[in-house]
Amino acid sequence: MVDKIDFQKALGRRIKDLRETKNVSQAELAALCNFEKSNMNRIESGKTCPSSYTLYKISTALEVKLSEVTSVIS
């Protein structure tokens, strides 16, 4: 079983990887999601665990399925 901190870090890395694959800057993704860039930074660095709605907004902005964002633990 994965603990919360490890999960948050893996989720943040996954979001960052997807964002970089789409050639979107952190500031651009934050703007698309109507977040402050600092909030996006906290998510990507694993310092916070985003809500399901926040994950939905991120997946929509990146034009990927929600399952692609949340598939962090194999």
Short characterization:
Helix content is 68%, strand content 0%. It has a single domain, classed as 434 Repressor (Amino-terminal Domain), CATH 1.10.260.
Please count the helical segments. 5
Binned, the helix content reads: 55-70%
Radius of gyration: 11 Å
Order of SSEs: HHHHH
Mean pLDDT: 93
- Class from secondary-structure proportions: mainly alpha
CATH superfamily placement: lambda repressor-like DNA-binding domains
Low-confidence stretches: none
Domains (count): 1
Quote the distance from N terminus to C terminus.
Answer: 11 Å
Q: Per CATH, which architecture?
A: Orthogonal Bundle
The coarse silhouette is: globular
Largest sheet: none
> What is the name of the CATH topology?
434 Repressor (Amino-terminal Domain)
CATH class: Mainly Alpha
Number of strands: 0
- Percentage of residues in DSSP E strands: under 5%
Describe the structure.
- This protein has 74 residues and is mainly α.
- It has one domain (4-68): 434 Repressor (Amino-terminal Domain), CATH 1.10.260.40.
- 68% of the residues lie in helices and 0% in strands.
- The protein has helices at 4-21, 26-33, 37-44, 52-62, 66-70.
- Helix 2 packs across helix 4.
